[in-house]
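User: My collaborator sent over this chain with a note saying "see what the structure looks like." That's all I know about it. Can you take a look?
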Amino acid sequence: MQARDVYLSQLMQGPKQFLIPIFQRTYSWQEPHCAQLYEDIFKAGFGPTIDSHFTGSVVLIANHQTSASIPQWLIIDGQQRLTTVTLLMAAVMKRAAELGLEQVSMTPLGAIRGYYLVNEYGQGDAAYKLLLTKADRSTLCALLDNKEFSDDVSDNVRNNFELFCSWLTDVETVERIYSGFQKLKVVEVVLQQNHDDPQAIFESLNSTGVDLSQADLIRNYVLMRQDYETQSQLYLDYWYPMERLFGREESQRFDRFMQDFLTLETGSNTLLRSVDVYSTFKDWFSEQVSQNSVEYTLERMLILARFHAAYMFGSETDQKLVLAFKRLRTLAEVVSPTVMRLYEGYRPHGKSKDPSLTLADFLTALAHLESYLLRRQICAMQTRSLGNVFANLAQQISLDNPLETLEVSLARFKRNNRFPSDVEFREALVTHDIYGMRIQKFLLDSLENDSKEMIDTSSFSIEHVLPQNENLRPEWKNMLGENWEEIHQTLSGVNYLGRSATTMMAG
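Assistant: Without extra context I'll predict from the sequence alone. Here is the result:
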Protein backbone atom coordinates (compact mmCIF):
# COMPACT_ATOMS: atom_id res chain seq x y z
CA MET A 1 0.00 0.00 0.00
CA GLN A 2 1.30 3.43 -0.97
CA ALA A 3 -0.23 6.72 0.14
CA ARG A 4 0.46 10.36 -0.71
CA ASP A 5 -1.18 13.78 -0.58
CA VAL A 6 -2.11 15.00 -4.03
CA TYR A 7 -4.30 17.64 -5.63
CA LEU A 8 -7.42 16.00 -7.05
CA SER A 9 -6.97 17.89 -10.30
CA GLN A 10 -3.50 16.34 -10.68
CA LEU A 11 -4.86 12.88 -9.92
CA MET A 12 -7.43 13.21 -12.69
CA GLN A 13 -5.10 14.59 -15.37
CA GLY A 14 -3.25 12.57 -17.99
CA PRO A 15 -4.33 9.59 -20.12
CA LYS A 16 -6.01 7.29 -17.61
CA GLN A 17 -9.37 5.81 -16.84
CA PHE A 18 -11.06 5.33 -13.48
CA LEU A 19 -13.37 2.31 -13.34
CA ILE A 20 -16.10 1.82 -10.79
CA PRO A 21 -15.98 -1.91 -10.02
CA ILE A 22 -19.20 -3.82 -10.33
CA PHE A 23 -19.19 -4.57 -6.61
CA GLN A 24 -19.57 -0.87 -5.81
CA ARG A 25 -23.01 0.55 -5.16
CA THR A 26 -24.48 2.88 -7.74
CA TYR A 27 -23.96 6.63 -7.51
CA SER A 28 -26.02 7.66 -4.48
CA TRP A 29 -25.15 11.24 -3.57
CA GLN A 30 -28.11 13.60 -3.45
CA GLU A 31 -28.60 17.33 -3.02
CA PRO A 32 -27.34 17.64 0.62
CA HIS A 33 -24.07 15.84 -0.24
CA CYS A 34 -23.59 17.95 -3.38
CA ALA A 35 -24.40 21.15 -1.48
CA GLN A 36 -21.75 20.43 1.15
CA LEU A 37 -19.04 19.71 -1.42
CA TYR A 38 -20.06 22.73 -3.49
CA GLU A 39 -19.90 24.98 -0.41
CA ASP A 40 -16.42 23.65 0.48
CA ILE A 41 -15.18 24.32 -3.06
CA PHE A 42 -16.81 27.76 -3.13
CA LYS A 43 -15.05 28.75 0.11
CA ALA A 44 -11.73 27.36 -1.11
CA GLY A 45 -12.02 29.46 -4.27
CA PHE A 46 -12.21 32.71 -2.30
CA GLY A 47 -8.91 34.58 -2.41
CA PRO A 48 -5.26 33.58 -2.12
CA THR A 49 -5.29 32.86 1.62
CA ILE A 50 -6.54 29.27 1.12
CA ASP A 51 -4.05 27.17 -0.84
CA SER A 52 -5.70 23.76 -0.33
CA HIS A 53 -8.78 22.00 1.04
CA PHE A 54 -8.65 18.35 2.12
CA THR A 55 -11.63 16.31 0.91
CA GLY A 56 -10.91 12.71 1.93
CA SER A 57 -9.19 9.74 0.35
CA VAL A 58 -9.25 7.96 -2.98
CA VAL A 59 -8.29 4.29 -2.85
CA LEU A 60 -7.17 2.74 -6.15
CA ILE A 61 -5.86 -0.54 -7.46
CA ALA A 62 -4.42 -1.02 -10.95
CA ASN A 63 -6.46 -3.12 -13.37
CA HIS A 64 -3.83 -5.40 -14.90
CA GLN A 65 -6.38 -7.78 -16.46
CA THR A 66 -6.79 -5.61 -19.51
CA SER A 67 -5.13 -5.00 -22.86
CA ALA A 68 -6.31 -1.38 -22.97
CA SER A 69 -3.67 1.12 -24.08
CA ILE A 70 -4.88 3.65 -21.50
CA PRO A 71 -3.99 2.77 -17.87
CA GLN A 72 -7.03 1.73 -15.87
CA TRP A 73 -7.57 2.17 -12.15
CA LEU A 74 -10.31 0.49 -10.11
CA ILE A 75 -11.79 2.81 -7.49
CA ILE A 76 -12.11 0.96 -4.19
CA ASP A 77 -13.17 4.09 -2.32
CA GLY A 78 -13.93 7.62 -3.48
CA GLN A 79 -16.52 6.89 -6.18
CA GLN A 80 -19.13 9.31 -4.85
CA ARG A 81 -16.65 12.18 -4.53
CA LEU A 82 -14.97 11.59 -7.91
CA THR A 83 -18.29 11.21 -9.73
CA THR A 84 -19.65 14.39 -8.15
CA VAL A 85 -16.53 16.39 -9.08
CA THR A 86 -16.82 15.07 -12.65
CA LEU A 87 -20.43 16.27 -12.80
CA LEU A 88 -19.36 19.64 -11.41
CA MET A 89 -16.64 20.05 -14.07
CA ALA A 90 -19.15 19.09 -16.78
CA ALA A 91 -21.51 21.74 -15.39
CA VAL A 92 -18.67 24.33 -15.38
CA MET A 93 -18.03 23.53 -19.04
CA LYS A 94 -21.71 23.87 -19.98
CA ARG A 95 -22.38 27.08 -18.09
CA ALA A 96 -19.12 28.68 -19.24
CA ALA A 97 -20.08 28.03 -22.86
CA GLU A 98 -23.60 29.39 -22.26
CA LEU A 99 -22.08 32.54 -20.70
CA GLY A 100 -19.90 33.05 -23.77
CA LEU A 101 -16.58 32.13 -22.12
CA GLU A 102 -13.78 30.50 -24.07
CA GLN A 103 -11.69 29.84 -20.95
CA VAL A 104 -12.08 29.69 -17.18
CA SER A 105 -9.25 31.00 -14.96
CA MET A 106 -6.94 31.10 -17.98
CA THR A 107 -7.75 27.47 -18.88
CA PRO A 108 -9.41 26.92 -22.28
CA LEU A 109 -12.66 24.96 -22.15
CA GLY A 110 -11.20 22.31 -24.42
CA ALA A 111 -8.34 21.81 -21.97
CA ILE A 112 -10.75 21.44 -19.04
CA ARG A 113 -12.59 18.75 -20.99
CA GLY A 114 -9.33 16.95 -21.82
CA TYR A 115 -7.90 17.24 -18.32
CA TYR A 116 -10.88 16.02 -16.30
CA LEU A 117 -13.59 14.50 -18.48
CA VAL A 118 -12.28 12.61 -21.52
CA ASN A 119 -9.21 10.88 -22.93
CA GLU A 120 -8.57 12.68 -26.21
CA TYR A 121 -7.27 9.63 -28.07
CA GLY A 122 -9.37 6.98 -26.37
CA GLN A 123 -11.74 4.89 -28.46
CA GLY A 124 -15.18 3.66 -27.33
CA ASP A 125 -15.44 3.39 -23.55
CA ALA A 126 -11.76 4.32 -23.26
CA ALA A 127 -12.69 7.86 -24.30
CA TYR A 128 -14.11 8.62 -20.84
CA LYS A 129 -11.99 9.45 -17.79
CA LEU A 130 -14.60 7.94 -15.48
CA LEU A 131 -16.58 4.81 -16.31
CA LEU A 132 -19.45 4.21 -13.91
CA THR A 133 -21.39 1.02 -13.21
CA LYS A 134 -24.04 -0.11 -15.67
CA ALA A 135 -26.90 1.63 -13.91
CA ASP A 136 -25.21 5.06 -14.20
CA ARG A 137 -22.79 4.69 -17.11
CA SER A 138 -24.98 5.59 -20.08
CA THR A 139 -26.32 8.73 -18.38
CA LEU A 140 -22.85 10.15 -17.64
CA CYS A 141 -21.58 9.28 -21.13
CA ALA A 142 -24.62 10.92 -22.76
CA LEU A 143 -24.11 14.00 -20.59
CA LEU A 144 -20.43 14.31 -21.59
CA ASP A 145 -21.25 13.76 -25.26
CA ASN A 146 -24.16 16.23 -25.14
CA LYS A 147 -26.62 13.55 -26.27
CA GLU A 148 -30.16 12.67 -25.24
CA PHE A 149 -30.53 10.48 -22.17
CA SER A 150 -31.76 6.90 -22.60
CA ASP A 151 -34.98 5.61 -21.04
CA ASP A 152 -33.08 4.08 -18.11
CA VAL A 153 -31.59 7.43 -17.08
CA SER A 154 -29.80 7.61 -13.74
CA ASP A 155 -31.76 10.19 -11.77
CA ASN A 156 -28.92 11.00 -9.36
CA VAL A 157 -26.42 11.64 -12.16
CA ARG A 158 -28.83 13.81 -14.15
CA ASN A 159 -30.31 15.66 -11.18
CA ASN A 160 -26.95 16.53 -9.60
CA PHE A 161 -25.57 17.79 -12.91
CA GLU A 162 -28.64 20.01 -13.39
CA LEU A 163 -28.34 21.14 -9.76
CA PHE A 164 -24.76 22.32 -10.31
CA CYS A 165 -25.77 24.10 -13.53
CA SER A 166 -28.49 25.96 -11.61
CA TRP A 167 -25.98 27.09 -8.96
CA LEU A 168 -23.42 28.38 -11.50
CA THR A 169 -25.40 31.55 -12.15
CA ASP A 170 -22.73 33.94 -13.47
CA VAL A 171 -19.13 34.27 -14.66
CA GLU A 172 -17.80 35.11 -11.20
CA THR A 173 -19.31 31.97 -9.68
CA VAL A 174 -17.98 29.77 -12.49
CA GLU A 175 -14.48 31.24 -12.05
CA ARG A 176 -14.59 30.84 -8.27
CA ILE A 177 -15.79 27.21 -8.39
CA TYR A 178 -13.08 26.26 -10.88
CA SER A 179 -10.47 27.99 -8.74
CA GLY A 180 -11.71 26.16 -5.64
CA PHE A 181 -11.63 22.84 -7.47
CA GLN A 182 -7.92 23.37 -8.17
CA LYS A 183 -7.32 23.53 -4.42
CA LEU A 184 -8.97 20.21 -3.52
CA LYS A 185 -6.57 17.72 -1.99
CA VAL A 186 -7.00 14.01 -1.36
CA VAL A 187 -4.96 11.19 0.06
CA GLU A 188 -4.27 8.87 -2.87
CA VAL A 189 -3.95 5.28 -1.62
CA VAL A 190 -2.68 2.74 -4.16
CA LEU A 191 -3.19 -0.91 -3.20
CA GLN A 192 -0.80 -3.63 -4.22
CA GLN A 193 -2.22 -6.54 -6.20
CA ASN A 194 -2.14 -9.85 -4.25
CA HIS A 195 -0.87 -8.06 -1.14
CA ASP A 196 -3.62 -5.78 0.15
CA ASP A 197 -7.17 -6.99 0.83
CA PRO A 198 -9.49 -4.61 -1.11
CA GLN A 199 -12.63 -5.93 0.55
CA ALA A 200 -11.42 -5.42 4.11
CA ILE A 201 -10.25 -1.91 3.24
CA PHE A 202 -13.53 -1.12 1.48
CA GLU A 203 -15.67 -2.24 4.41
CA SER A 204 -13.49 -0.32 6.86
CA LEU A 205 -13.61 2.90 4.85
CA ASN A 206 -17.37 2.64 4.35
CA SER A 207 -18.21 2.04 7.99
CA THR A 208 -19.16 5.73 8.16
CA GLY A 209 -21.19 7.97 5.85
CA VAL A 210 -24.06 6.49 3.84
CA ASP A 211 -24.53 3.06 5.41
CA LEU A 212 -23.94 0.06 3.22
CA SER A 213 -27.03 -2.06 2.77
CA GLN A 214 -27.02 -5.84 2.95
CA ALA A 215 -27.24 -5.78 -0.86
CA ASP A 216 -24.09 -3.65 -1.04
CA LEU A 217 -22.15 -5.87 1.34
CA ILE A 218 -23.20 -9.10 -0.33
CA ARG A 219 -22.50 -7.79 -3.84
CA ASN A 220 -19.05 -6.69 -2.67
CA TYR A 221 -18.31 -10.05 -1.08
CA VAL A 222 -19.34 -12.00 -4.18
CA LEU A 223 -17.64 -9.88 -6.82
CA MET A 224 -14.69 -8.08 -5.25
CA ARG A 225 -12.23 -10.99 -5.39
CA GLN A 226 -12.88 -11.58 -9.09
CA ASP A 227 -10.92 -9.83 -11.82
CA TYR A 228 -12.65 -6.94 -13.55
CA GLU A 229 -13.77 -8.90 -16.62
CA THR A 230 -15.24 -11.70 -14.51
CA GLN A 231 -16.95 -9.17 -12.25
CA SER A 232 -18.58 -7.57 -15.26
CA GLN A 233 -19.81 -10.87 -16.68
CA LEU A 234 -21.19 -12.13 -13.36
CA TYR A 235 -22.89 -8.81 -12.78
CA LEU A 236 -24.54 -8.75 -16.21
CA ASP A 237 -25.64 -12.41 -16.09
CA TYR A 238 -26.85 -12.66 -12.51
CA TRP A 239 -26.65 -9.57 -10.33
CA TYR A 240 -28.12 -7.00 -12.68
CA PRO A 241 -31.23 -9.14 -13.31
CA MET A 242 -31.72 -9.27 -9.54
CA GLU A 243 -31.35 -5.50 -9.30
CA ARG A 244 -34.05 -5.11 -11.91
CA LEU A 245 -36.36 -7.41 -9.93
CA PHE A 246 -35.98 -5.45 -6.71
CA GLY A 247 -35.30 -1.95 -8.04
CA ARG A 248 -32.04 -0.03 -7.97
CA GLU A 249 -32.94 2.01 -4.93
CA GLU A 250 -34.95 -0.61 -3.08
CA SER A 251 -32.22 -2.20 -0.98
CA GLN A 252 -34.82 -3.14 1.65
CA ARG A 253 -36.49 -5.39 -0.90
CA PHE A 254 -33.22 -7.21 -1.53
CA ASP A 255 -32.49 -7.46 2.18
CA ARG A 256 -35.89 -9.06 2.78
CA PHE A 257 -35.29 -11.52 -0.06
CA MET A 258 -31.95 -12.53 1.43
CA GLN A 259 -33.64 -13.27 4.76
CA ASP A 260 -36.02 -15.66 3.03
CA PHE A 261 -33.38 -17.09 0.72
CA LEU A 262 -30.87 -17.89 3.44
CA THR A 263 -33.61 -19.25 5.69
CA LEU A 264 -34.41 -21.76 2.94
CA GLU A 265 -30.83 -22.52 1.93
CA THR A 266 -29.51 -23.06 5.44
CA GLY A 267 -32.42 -25.30 6.40
CA SER A 268 -33.40 -23.04 9.30
CA ASN A 269 -36.70 -23.65 11.09
CA THR A 270 -36.84 -19.99 12.12
CA LEU A 271 -36.73 -16.86 10.00
CA LEU A 272 -33.22 -15.45 9.83
CA ARG A 273 -32.78 -12.14 11.65
CA SER A 274 -31.97 -9.20 9.38
CA VAL A 275 -28.83 -8.33 11.41
CA ASP A 276 -27.46 -11.83 10.76
CA VAL A 277 -27.94 -11.80 6.97
CA TYR A 278 -24.45 -10.71 5.91
CA SER A 279 -22.47 -12.95 8.26
CA THR A 280 -24.69 -15.92 7.41
CA PHE A 281 -24.34 -15.23 3.70
CA LYS A 282 -20.54 -15.21 3.87
CA ASP A 283 -20.50 -18.63 5.53
CA TRP A 284 -23.10 -20.03 3.13
CA PHE A 285 -21.44 -18.62 0.02
CA SER A 286 -17.98 -19.85 0.97
CA GLU A 287 -19.33 -23.35 1.50
CA GLN A 288 -21.24 -23.27 -1.79
CA VAL A 289 -18.36 -22.13 -3.98
CA SER A 290 -16.12 -24.79 -2.42
CA GLN A 291 -18.51 -27.38 -3.91
CA ASN A 292 -19.89 -25.57 -6.96
CA SER A 293 -18.89 -22.71 -9.23
CA VAL A 294 -19.65 -19.06 -8.48
CA GLU A 295 -21.88 -19.07 -11.56
CA TYR A 296 -23.94 -22.02 -10.26
CA THR A 297 -24.34 -20.37 -6.86
CA LEU A 298 -25.44 -17.03 -8.32
CA GLU A 299 -27.86 -18.80 -10.68
CA ARG A 300 -29.45 -20.40 -7.64
CA MET A 301 -29.87 -16.97 -6.07
CA LEU A 302 -31.42 -15.56 -9.24
CA ILE A 303 -33.95 -18.40 -9.52
CA LEU A 304 -35.17 -17.91 -5.95
CA ALA A 305 -35.13 -14.13 -6.42
CA ARG A 306 -37.58 -14.50 -9.31
CA PHE A 307 -39.87 -16.63 -7.14
CA HIS A 308 -39.71 -14.07 -4.35
CA ALA A 309 -40.44 -11.16 -6.68
CA ALA A 310 -43.33 -13.05 -8.29
CA TYR A 311 -45.03 -13.36 -4.92
CA MET A 312 -44.03 -10.09 -3.26
CA PHE A 313 -44.09 -7.66 -6.19
CA GLY A 314 -46.58 -9.18 -8.61
CA SER A 315 -44.18 -10.18 -11.41
CA GLU A 316 -46.04 -13.48 -11.99
CA THR A 317 -47.82 -13.63 -15.37
CA ASP A 318 -50.54 -16.20 -14.60
CA GLN A 319 -53.55 -14.15 -13.50
CA LYS A 320 -54.93 -16.85 -11.21
CA LEU A 321 -51.66 -16.88 -9.29
CA VAL A 322 -51.50 -13.08 -9.30
CA LEU A 323 -54.91 -12.93 -7.59
CA ALA A 324 -54.05 -15.70 -5.13
CA PHE A 325 -50.77 -13.97 -4.22
CA LYS A 326 -52.53 -10.66 -3.72
CA ARG A 327 -55.09 -12.21 -1.35
CA LEU A 328 -52.35 -13.99 0.57
CA ARG A 329 -50.22 -10.83 0.92
CA THR A 330 -53.27 -9.02 2.29
CA LEU A 331 -53.28 -11.47 5.18
CA ALA A 332 -49.50 -11.74 5.71
CA GLU A 333 -46.30 -11.16 3.71
CA VAL A 334 -44.22 -13.48 5.90
CA VAL A 335 -45.59 -16.45 3.94
CA SER A 336 -42.90 -15.79 1.31
CA PRO A 337 -40.43 -18.60 2.28
CA THR A 338 -43.21 -21.18 1.96
CA VAL A 339 -44.39 -19.73 -1.36
CA MET A 340 -40.81 -19.76 -2.69
CA ARG A 341 -40.50 -23.45 -1.78
CA LEU A 342 -43.77 -24.25 -3.51
CA TYR A 343 -42.55 -22.36 -6.58
CA GLU A 344 -39.60 -24.72 -6.81
CA GLY A 345 -42.01 -27.59 -7.33
CA TYR A 346 -44.06 -25.57 -9.78
CA ARG A 347 -41.05 -24.40 -11.76
CA PRO A 348 -38.06 -26.64 -11.10
CA HIS A 349 -34.46 -25.90 -12.07
CA GLY A 350 -34.20 -28.39 -14.86
CA LYS A 351 -36.38 -27.47 -17.81
CA SER A 352 -36.52 -31.10 -18.90
CA LYS A 353 -37.96 -32.22 -15.58
CA ASP A 354 -41.74 -32.28 -15.22
CA PRO A 355 -43.03 -30.00 -12.47
CA SER A 356 -44.06 -31.81 -9.31
CA LEU A 357 -46.74 -29.19 -8.66
CA THR A 358 -49.40 -28.41 -11.23
CA LEU A 359 -51.07 -25.01 -11.44
CA ALA A 360 -54.24 -26.44 -9.90
CA ASP A 361 -52.27 -27.95 -7.01
CA PHE A 362 -50.33 -24.70 -6.55
CA LEU A 363 -53.59 -22.78 -6.25
CA THR A 364 -54.90 -25.38 -3.80
CA ALA A 365 -51.75 -25.02 -1.69
CA LEU A 366 -52.15 -21.23 -1.65
CA ALA A 367 -55.81 -21.62 -0.65
CA HIS A 368 -54.71 -23.78 2.31
CA LEU A 369 -52.28 -21.05 3.40
CA GLU A 370 -54.98 -18.41 3.04
CA SER A 371 -57.43 -20.49 5.07
CA TYR A 372 -54.82 -21.03 7.79
CA LEU A 373 -54.12 -17.31 8.09
CA LEU A 374 -57.76 -16.23 7.88
CA ARG A 375 -58.97 -18.74 10.43
CA ARG A 376 -56.23 -17.78 12.88
CA GLN A 377 -57.06 -14.08 12.60
CA ILE A 378 -60.80 -14.67 13.01
CA CYS A 379 -60.06 -16.89 16.00
CA ALA A 380 -57.78 -14.18 17.45
CA MET A 381 -54.77 -16.49 17.66
CA GLN A 382 -51.29 -14.98 18.11
CA THR A 383 -49.52 -13.73 14.99
CA ARG A 384 -46.18 -12.61 16.46
CA SER A 385 -44.25 -15.71 15.44
CA LEU A 386 -45.78 -16.27 12.00
CA GLY A 387 -42.42 -15.62 10.32
CA ASN A 388 -40.95 -18.59 12.15
CA VAL A 389 -44.06 -20.68 11.46
CA PHE A 390 -43.71 -20.26 7.70
CA ALA A 391 -39.95 -20.71 7.78
CA ASN A 392 -40.52 -24.05 9.52
CA LEU A 393 -43.34 -24.95 7.14
CA ALA A 394 -41.12 -24.31 4.12
CA GLN A 395 -38.59 -26.82 5.42
CA GLN A 396 -41.30 -29.49 5.78
CA ILE A 397 -42.32 -29.32 2.10
CA SER A 398 -40.88 -32.06 -0.08
CA LEU A 399 -40.31 -31.06 -3.71
CA ASP A 400 -41.23 -34.59 -4.74
CA ASN A 401 -44.74 -34.14 -3.35
CA PRO A 402 -45.24 -30.47 -2.37
CA LEU A 403 -49.03 -30.35 -1.91
CA GLU A 404 -49.36 -33.48 0.21
CA THR A 405 -46.41 -32.62 2.46
CA LEU A 406 -47.81 -29.09 2.93
CA GLU A 407 -51.21 -30.47 3.95
CA VAL A 408 -49.68 -32.99 6.34
CA SER A 409 -47.47 -30.33 7.94
CA LEU A 410 -50.37 -27.92 8.44
CA ALA A 411 -52.42 -30.71 10.04
CA ARG A 412 -49.57 -31.58 12.41
CA PHE A 413 -49.20 -28.08 13.83
CA LYS A 414 -49.92 -28.17 17.57
CA ARG A 415 -50.88 -25.78 20.36
CA ASN A 416 -50.40 -22.11 19.48
CA ASN A 417 -49.57 -22.85 15.83
CA ARG A 418 -52.46 -25.24 15.14
CA PHE A 419 -54.84 -25.01 12.21
CA PRO A 420 -58.20 -23.85 13.73
CA SER A 421 -60.96 -26.42 13.40
CA ASP A 422 -64.31 -25.80 11.71
CA VAL A 423 -65.98 -25.68 15.12
CA GLU A 424 -63.54 -23.03 16.41
CA PHE A 425 -63.92 -21.02 13.24
CA ARG A 426 -67.75 -21.04 13.24
CA GLU A 427 -67.89 -20.02 16.88
CA ALA A 428 -65.38 -17.18 16.36
CA LEU A 429 -67.29 -15.87 13.34
CA VAL A 430 -70.46 -15.60 15.45
CA THR A 431 -69.01 -14.29 18.70
CA HIS A 432 -65.92 -12.20 17.79
CA ASP A 433 -66.03 -8.57 16.78
CA ILE A 434 -65.31 -8.90 13.07
CA TYR A 435 -66.14 -5.23 12.54
CA GLY A 436 -63.12 -4.27 14.63
CA MET A 437 -60.71 -6.49 12.71
CA ARG A 438 -58.50 -5.16 9.89
CA ILE A 439 -59.54 -8.09 7.69
CA GLN A 440 -63.21 -7.16 7.68
CA LYS A 441 -63.11 -6.00 4.05
CA PHE A 442 -61.13 -9.10 3.05
CA LEU A 443 -63.86 -11.30 4.53
CA LEU A 444 -66.65 -9.34 2.87
CA ASP A 445 -64.82 -9.48 -0.45
CA SER A 446 -64.53 -13.26 -0.08
CA LEU A 447 -68.26 -13.52 0.52
CA GLU A 448 -69.07 -11.25 -2.40
CA ASN A 449 -66.80 -13.10 -4.80
CA ASP A 450 -67.70 -16.63 -3.84
CA SER A 451 -68.90 -17.15 -7.39
CA LYS A 452 -67.57 -17.41 -10.92
CA GLU A 453 -68.08 -13.71 -11.71
CA MET A 454 -65.50 -11.59 -9.86
CA ILE A 455 -66.42 -8.11 -8.64
CA ASP A 456 -63.89 -5.40 -7.81
CA THR A 457 -64.67 -4.32 -4.24
CA SER A 458 -61.65 -2.08 -3.71
CA SER A 459 -63.80 1.07 -3.71
CA PHE A 460 -66.51 -0.38 -1.46
CA SER A 461 -67.03 1.00 2.01
CA ILE A 462 -68.32 -0.64 5.18
CA GLU A 463 -71.93 0.11 6.05
CA HIS A 464 -74.00 -1.01 9.08
CA VAL A 465 -76.78 -3.47 8.41
CA LEU A 466 -78.60 -2.12 11.47
CA PRO A 467 -78.08 1.27 13.15
CA GLN A 468 -76.12 0.97 16.42
CA ASN A 469 -77.72 4.07 17.93
CA GLU A 470 -80.56 3.16 20.30
CA ASN A 471 -82.61 6.16 19.10
CA LEU A 472 -84.04 4.45 16.04
CA ARG A 473 -85.96 6.33 13.43
CA PRO A 474 -89.66 5.45 13.06
CA GLU A 475 -89.02 3.61 9.83
CA TRP A 476 -86.75 1.12 11.62
CA LYS A 477 -89.22 0.67 14.47
CA ASN A 478 -91.99 -0.13 12.05
CA MET A 479 -89.85 -2.62 10.18
CA LEU A 480 -88.71 -4.42 13.34
CA GLY A 481 -92.28 -4.62 14.64
CA GLU A 482 -93.97 -4.47 18.01
CA ASN A 483 -90.99 -5.81 19.96
CA TRP A 484 -88.49 -3.53 18.22
CA GLU A 485 -86.61 -2.61 21.38
CA GLU A 486 -85.87 -6.24 22.27
CA ILE A 487 -85.02 -7.13 18.68
CA HIS A 488 -82.72 -4.12 18.27
CA GLN A 489 -80.91 -4.87 21.53
CA THR A 490 -80.42 -8.48 20.53
CA LEU A 491 -79.22 -7.82 16.99
CA SER A 492 -76.96 -4.95 18.06
CA GLY A 493 -75.08 -7.27 20.39
CA VAL A 494 -74.60 -10.01 17.83
CA ASN A 495 -71.91 -10.21 15.19
CA TYR A 496 -74.36 -10.37 12.30
CA LEU A 497 -71.49 -10.58 9.77
CA GLY A 498 -70.28 -13.64 11.51
CA ARG A 499 -73.68 -15.32 11.35
CA SER A 500 -73.97 -14.60 7.66
CA ALA A 501 -70.50 -15.79 6.88
CA THR A 502 -70.52 -18.98 8.90
CA THR A 503 -71.94 -21.30 6.30
CA MET A 504 -69.95 -19.98 3.40
CA MET A 505 -66.53 -19.55 4.99
CA ALA A 506 -66.25 -22.33 7.50
CA GLY A 507 -65.60 -25.20 5.12
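A starting point for your reply to your collaborator: Residues 79-98 form the longest helix (20 residues).
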